[in-house]
Specification:
Elements lengths: L3 E2 L2 E2 L1 H21 L6 E3 L5 E3 H17 L4 E4 L3 E3 L6 E9 L1 H5 L6 E8 L2 E9 L4 E6 L5 E2 L2 E2 L12 E4 L8 H12 L2 E4 L4 H7 L5 E7 L1 H4 L2 H7 L3 E4 L16 E6 L2 H11 L4
Parallel strand pairs: 5-7, 13-14, 13-15
Antiparallel strand pairs: 1-2, 3-4, 5-6, 7-8, 8-9, 9-10, 10-11, 11-12, 15-17, 16-17
GO molecular function, one term: metal ion binding
Pfam family, one: Inositol_P
Pathway: Amino-acid biosynthesis; L-histidine biosynthesis; L-histidine from 5-phospho-alpha-D-ribose 1-diphosphate: step 8/9
């Protein structure tokens, strides 16, 4: 039974989130490995027509099926709804660099927040046809089947991911290096897909910086529903905060709470 938030049953929203993923995936699949033009945004990150059309398709569905909810997306920003409790957070193609270089390691990220708390998350990889769904209080599923993280007693045993070493700078680069050097095998280049691997029990830790809420909020229910832990580098819960909605964040996710606690100790961030 899908849990409820107050008087609202989340089950219709899960169905809607799946429709959003279908619509975004249809767009990105159509453009994948085709010669699309790549523009550069103000923050120097790449964007394509696929990113914009995929987010537009999701926003069109939300305007019809959840018209009172707010929407915050990577490409078209934040639009408040008449019901301030609910906001959808969208990243149509997380991993645009993977997308434009033909690697099927990007994903569509869809989160629904209730009073800032991510209560529903979807990670969809349309090329590999893999879809993770996490719902507050329920087991995470991958293509409809429950999944779980694996035990990992220490960072020294961990397979660690970060999208790129270039996402760290200054003090957070030094902090990341402590976790990287302590881990068994550090790897790079999976974007959101790495979190799916941790939830599936194939990897152990993801440590990242310079992320916006649309990069990580959908992943919180997915990790937690699979038995993992995901916080910021201070160990605080990840939420959608209107005051920091455009700021960069540091996050750490682990499949085992013991490894998560050790990673926080190694990060020793701003204490």
């Amino acid at each position: 039974m899908t849990p409820a938030i107050g008087t609202q049953d989340l089950e219709p929203f899960v169905a809607l989130a799946n429709r959003l993923a279908d619509s975004a995936g249809a767009v990105s699949s159509r453009y994948f490995r085709t010669p699309v033009a790549v523009d550069v945004k103000a923050d120097a990150s790449p964007v394509t027509i696929a990113d914009r059309e995929a987010e537009g398709a999701m926003r069109d569905l939300l305007s019809t099926h959840a018209p009172t909810h707010g929407v915050f997306g990577e490409e078209f920003g934040h639009a408040s709804g008449s019901d301030p409790d609910w906001t959808w957070v969208l990243d149509p193609i997380d991993g645009t660099k993977s997308f434009i270089t033909g690697r099927p390691l990007f994903g569509t990220l869809i989160a629904l927040t209730h009073r800032g708390v991510p209560v529903l998350g979807v990670l969809d990889q349309p090329i590999l046809r893999e879809r993770w769904v996490g719902v507050l209080g329920a087991e995470t599923s991958l293509n409809g089947l429950p999944i779980h993280t694996r035990p990992c007693a220490s960072v020294g045993d961990a397979y660690l991911f970060a999208t790129t070493p270039h996402m760290f700078s200054g003090p957070n680069a030094e902090a990341f290096a402590r976790v990287r050097d302590a881990s068994r095998i550090p790897q790079y280049g999976c974007d959101c897909y790495a979190y799916g691997l941790v939830a599936r029990g194939l990897a152990d830790v993801v440590v990242e910086a310079d992320l916006k809420p649309y990069d990580f909020l959908a992943l919180v229910p997915i990790l937690e529903g699979a038995g993992g832990v995901m916080t910021d580098w201070m160990g605080e819960a990840l939420r959608l905060d209107p005051e920091t909605i455009t700021e960069a964040h540091e996050v750490v996710a682990a499949g085992d709470a013991r490894t998560h606690a050790q990673a926080l100790e190694l990060l020793d961030w701003r204490r």
